[in-house]
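In this supplementary section we document a worked example of the pipeline. Step one takes a protein sequence of length 171 as its only input; no multiple sequence alignment statistics are reported here. Step two produces a three-dimensional model, which step three serialises into structure tokens for compact storage. The input and output of this example are shown verbatim.
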Amino acid sequence: GNLTCTTPILPVIVMDDNIQQTCSAVWYDQGGPTNNYANNLNQVQSFVASSGKLRFTFNPNESQLGSGDSLFVYDGIDTTAQLISVLVNGSNFEPIKSKDSTLTFKFTSNSSATNKGWQAYISCVPAHFNKDTFALSSGVRYTCDAIIRDPGGTGNYSYGFWRQTFASYNG
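The serialised model returned by step three reads:
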């Protein structure tokens, strides 16, 4: 059979300490699409939507952090904005959406194990797109309006014990 692509290839953004304005890109950790990220990183990158709200959809097959490494997500232009998620080793990389038009990510890695990092598809969604759905995972989720489900998804319960921390934006 024939395979034809009708849309342009998405631009690739590799994490650095710059502000990016986009509604269509693929975002990788500092190691890019082919390498693990490095040890001892402390990087901050902000994104601004070209229109609407930002939505980051992580590829679960390409998103994994090493033990002791963290990806913090802030709902605003810098790290003084509201913290909305902390992703750590073992976290499910669920979609992340901005309340307005900006998101900031802070990534820290320690001096031991690294991992593949992440691959996220960046898109923009209409301003009225509100409710998030989260699977139980590790790390912390800050939300006041969400659907929370088991890690197996609808009707796919598995054996195990999960502990997830949920907190409101106001503490």
